[in-house]
Amino acid sequence: MESTTPTGAPAVDPAHDASSDAASAEFDAVIAADGRIEPRDAMPDAYRKTLVRQMSQHANSEIIGMQPEGNWITRAPSLMRKAILMAKVQDEAGHGLYLYSAAETLGTSRAEMTDALLAGTARYSSIFNYPTPTWADMGAIGWLVDGAAIVNQVPLCRCSYGPYARAMVRICKEESFHQRQGFEILLTLSRGTAAQHEMAQDAVNRWYAPSLMMFGPPDADSSHSAQSMAWKIKRFSNDELRQRFVDMLVPQAEALGLTLPDEGLRWNEQRGHYDYGELDWAEFKAVLRGEGQCNAQRLTHRRRAHEDGAWVRAAASAYAAKQAAKDDARQEVSAA
Ligand SMILES: [Fe+2]
Ligand SMILES: [Fe+2]
Question: How many angstroms does the Cα of residue 95 sit away from the middle of ligand 1?
Fold first, then answer.
């Protein structure tokens, strides 16, 4: 009988860790041919671990990322804005769900991933530890944070691990909608009163640098990058993706009538790209260490939400058990 994790995902079969030469050669051949590794295929243990780490971090980010915007649902300036923002935040919950489910195919249960997040031992994107004091932050998050997410995630649709790549296809479509709604909020504010324009500019001033840091440390300091690229989990380096993002932002900022707060930003004819200023990596590391403005608040809120949701999980499990018992009884009747 095949064993499964508590959530139904196939458990890891130790014979499938690609430790044998034949299994390892098969894995290498699939990667070399740009094929997809599927849950039951043999894979090196380190590949599995890297994916669980990356996918669970990604899922955690989607879930924690609901908080800075959820904060504005009741205060959005019109019924239409509320409905759009609510749909967007629900999309992020869905992204978390697809990604936890995709990660479970690697043999780690969703409960384990959630426990690690609540215990503070699993990471999520640092960007969500920044506060959202004004409505314009909803625009800046959509335009810059979802914008950076798209640049990061479009290449993941070609990631070598099948379930991750497939989850990213739908996620990227939804992220494009998120980016446009953010752009549209900023455009409306930018063309509004002087005070609204100033509010939009202030939000862009606060979110620009953190969004550039979402691509991770510079290539020279990125510990996981080279191996992830060799395994075709990652297709472009942190700096390549960051450059792509900056090149995309400049004309969009012009269209918005807003300024990117970066004195080092200028067109480099020779490189055919925009140069940009130094980023404050000390700040990035401090937020990562838990010293950001909202780190404690985000985790406290998440823990409380998890506790408050205990009855929903209990009810869903009881319902599933009842349905399974009914199915069993039906099968027995039809077999008799
Ligand atoms: Fe998302
Ligand atoms: Fe999004």
Answer: 5
